[in-house]
């Protein structure tokens, strides 16, 4: 039988905030990891509205939406909150890329921030100017 004792510690979220993180008896973080899927929608180039809304529900539930809105910006690397920002930004970037079809997600692997990926996905797939259709056609033509 597994011992499920939990303890909590406080870690700096940024230079002015504190975040409480729960750990199990093996030191694993219980607050950021679960078996709940990020979204049932994988961005496929034709379902931006469903994907973006569903993705934002997940991000709101984890209180990380500021990484997509730009309200939290990259601090200086010497700032006391940089490591926390880098960890959280990387987590949101991972959620983004992993909630996309592989052929779409691979296009976002070199971005540096979650907000850059979020905005680029919006610009590319929100159907404002038929860009998704152009990307599909270009891919088809490339394969010929």
UniProtKB/TrEMBL annotation:
Residue ranges of region Disordered?
Answer: 1-20
UniProt-listed Pfam families = Retrotran_gag_3
Record's InterPro entries? Copia-like_N
The Retrotransposon Copia-like N-terminal domain sits at: 35-76
Q: Which PANTHER family match?
A: CCHC-TYPE DOMAIN-CONTAINING PROTEIN (PTHR37610), RETROTRANSPOSON COPIA-LIKE N-TERMINAL DOMAIN-CONTAINING PROTEIN (PTHR37610:SF47)
What's the protein name?
A: Retrotransposon Copia-like N-terminal domain-containing protein
User: What does the organism's lineage look like at the top?
Assistant: Eukaryota, Viridiplantae, Streptophyta, Embryophyta, Tracheophyta
């Amino acid at each position: 039988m597994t011992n499920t004792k939990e303890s909590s510690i406080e870690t700096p979220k940024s230079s002015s905030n504190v975040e409480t993180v729960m750990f199990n008896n093996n030191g694993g973080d219980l607050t950021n990891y679960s078996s709940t899927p990020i979204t049932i929608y994988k961005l496929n180039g034709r379902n931006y509205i469903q994907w973006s809304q569903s993705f934002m529900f997940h991000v709101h539930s984890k209180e990380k939406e500021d990484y997509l809105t730009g309200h939290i910006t990259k601090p200086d690397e010497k700032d006391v909150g940089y490591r926390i920002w880098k960890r959280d930004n990387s987590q949101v970037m991972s959620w983004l890329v992993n909630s996309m079809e592989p052929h779409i997600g691979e296009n976002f692997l070199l971005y540096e921030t979650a907000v850059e990926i979020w905005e680029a996905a919006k610009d590319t797939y929100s159907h404002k100017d038929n860009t998704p259709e152009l990307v599909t056609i270009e891919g088809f033509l490339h394969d010929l």
